[in-house]
Amino acid sequence: MIDLRINIFLGNHYPEWILDQIWFLKKALIHKKISLQFSNKLVPDALNLIIENFEPPLIQKILDFCKKYNKKIGVVLTEHIDFVNGIINFNGIQVAESDDYQPRKLLRLLGLLNLAPVTIGYFTLGDYPRLINFDKIIYTANIIRIPYPMIEEKDMFLQIKNKPEYDFVFTGTLTDHRKKIINYIENSSKIFNCTFGNKETTRAKLLHESRYSLNIPQRSTWKWLSPMRILFGFRSGKATIHIGSAEKCKISKCIEYLPKLDKQYILNFLKNDSTILFEQNLDKYQSFVCSKENYFFPISEFENWAEVDQIIL
Q1: Dihedral class, residue 97 (left if φ above 0, else alpha if ψ from -120 to 50, else beta)
Q2: Which long-range contacts (CB under 8 A, 24 or more apart) does 273-276 make?
Q3: What is the C-alpha separation between 74 and 305, in angstroms, rounded?
Q4: Can you tell me the distance from the alpha carbon of 124 to that of 118, in angstroms, rounded to the nearest whole number?
Q5: What is the pTM of this model?
Q6: How far is Cα 253 from Cα 257, in angstroms, rounded to an integer?
Q7: 28-48: string of b/e by CB count within 10 Å (b at 16+)?
Q8: Cβ-based neighbours of 279, under 8 Å, separated by 6 or more
Q9: Strand pairing class (47-51; 73-76)
Q10: CA atoms within 13 Å, Cβ hemisphere of 59
Q11: CA distance 8 to 40
């Protein structure tokens, strides 16, 4: 009998920066009664799952571990890495192009390439990143989709019943484009922003003090939603509002949109009941999670990995 034990290796991240991903993985894996642990070490008696973003010293450490114990790793991908028209794009721009959101694109890509021989699968949380033609970048790539999890009452942060102080709260890295959007919205509403570096409870508290969670693209050409921000909004009791348009994904219908930056449009939108919008969008999300539109849990992929790594009871 295969004993599925997952070790989520945290050695290449500050934990507070990946709490949303950790919550997603925990919900998905524990729901299938897979044993789960978090560690700053790679361990030989479990399947080692790593969230991408590798520094050179860590790459060698992983390679040495896999060689010593004859193991494979699983990599969770969080960035949009595509091969389009013969060009590798990293979050929609060429990997060597300068960028105020991800300045380390090339280094991160090289890390993935160096670890490809010991990587058994590339996992995504839901349907993002798409990874268009990813097998043209890493020809052995096995892409594995983890289904969106149900949000239960125990996942919700304690609600504060005070009247919201802000119309919108944005949590995320401040790029030049995002700063411009925030400056514009501040002229017609009250907005507050913070970064992902803040503690999870601090982010939740800020959202409790607002009417909506704001999703702002990293730049004007950015075409994707941010599922982790949307789910965190739900857990904080808030609907998410996306600025502009975005390509369709599995949870596109579970949020609201401000398709254009117009002061009167924003003021008209703020006449809506934010509590009702939250409840409606959460209902849509929960219904989707239970539907055939969501992914099936890839249990066979984990069982195959356990056999390869010889994790046997």
Answers
A1: beta
A2: 274/164, 274/211, 274/212, 274/238, 274/239
A3: 9
A4: 18
A5: 0.93
A6: 10
A7: bbeeeebebeeeeebeeebbb
A8: none
A9: parallel
A10: 16
A11: 8
Amino acid at residue number 30: I
From first CA to last CA, the distance across the chain in angstroms is: 6
Scan for tokens 């401040």, then name that residue. Answer: 174
Report phi then psi at 110, rounded to 5.
Answer: -60, -35
pLDDT tens for 135-172 read 999 999 999 999 999 999 999 987 766 788 899 999 88
pLDDT in tens, 162-208: 788 899 999 888 899 999 999 999 888 888 877 776 788 888 888 98
- Cβ-based neighbour number of residue 130 at 10 Å: 15
- Paired strand residues for 240: 213
